[in-house]
Specification:
alpha/beta; Rossmann fold; two-stranded antiparallel ribbon; 9 strands; about 40% helix; globular
């Protein structure tokens, strides 16, 4: 076995911790992913293996998520079809996430149609990938938004899902050049909005956030809408990303004291 870690020894470890599995044939890539996830997703036993055959060591374990790297292959590739069928049969309760070199809408839609809960192109920032994995682990679905064509030009709002740029509110043309004018900078969050956003960081769905903060689900939805508007975010994942970056000093988001 060329795995960096001895799979058999890992399988005999803590039988109580839920398991998150990384399946990647290249040793360097999968151990890098392993180290990142161990740091970011606590409370899980995170293991890595080269092929789906390594899952046999974890029969009976509580496997919550399997991240499978398909590289350049299409979803309709026979090898990928076989792997997905095996994962569905062997771990019916586990969510499946795909890592891919592709980011086209056809591939992503085909993956979703086959029950994949998360689709992660390798072009996305690691912060977005972590937030997406948290969402999948909480029972949600993560996929990049499609880039909508409008009059032959890609939608700037759709592009803002893929790029860490503010939404564009205006286009100014002058002296033969076109300048993108971003929306206003992110504004202050109230203490309650900060609490809701921190819960979003954990990947919690609205129902659990409501229980955690003793709020109604409608109130939680209202706070999330306000947070996304203040952060100029298109969705929950982007709001989490912008919040994470401001914690690291990359943005100017402040919390009001009253």
């Amino acid at each position: 076995m060329d795995d960096f870690t001895n799979t058999a020894e890992l399988a005999q470890g803590s039988q109580k911790s839920p398991v998150l599995v990384i399946i990647e044939q290249h040793v360097l890539a999968r151990t890098c992913i392993l180290n990142i996830l161990k740091r970011e997703l606590t409370g899980f036993e995170i293991v890595e293996m080269a092929t789906t055959s390594g899952l046999s060591w974890f029969s009976g374990r509580d496997i919550r998520l399997i991240a499978l790297n398909i590289g350049d292959k299409e979803i309709t590739d026979p090898a990928i079809e076989v792997s997905l069928a095996f994962l569905s049969e062997f771990c019916p309760k586990a969510s499946v996430a795909l890592l891919s070199n592709r980011d086209d809408e056809v591939t992503i839609s085909a993956a979703m149609q086959r029950g994949v809960r998360g689709f992660f192109p390798k072009s996305i920032p690691v912060e977005v990938a972590i937030a997406g994995l948290r969402l999948v682990l909480a029972g949600g679905v993560y996929r990049p938004l499609p880039i909508v064509e409008q009059g032959g030009t890609s939608s700037l709002k759709a592009l803002s899902e893929h790029l860490d740029v503010p939404e564009v509110s205006e286009l100014h043309e002058g002296n033969g050049a076109t300048t993108l004018v971003p929306e206003r900078a992110m504004v202050d969050l109230t203490p309650r909005e900060q609490h809701v956003l921190e819960a979003l960081q954990l990947g919690l769905p609205n129902k659990l956030i409501a229980v955690r903060l003793n709020l109604s689900e409608n109130t939680v939805k209202m706070h999330i809408q306000r947070i996304m508007r203040k952060c100029s975010a298109r969705n929950r994942t982007e709001a989490v990303l912008r919040w994470s970056r401001q914690l690291n000093g990359h943005a100017h988001l402040r919390v009001r004291s009253s």
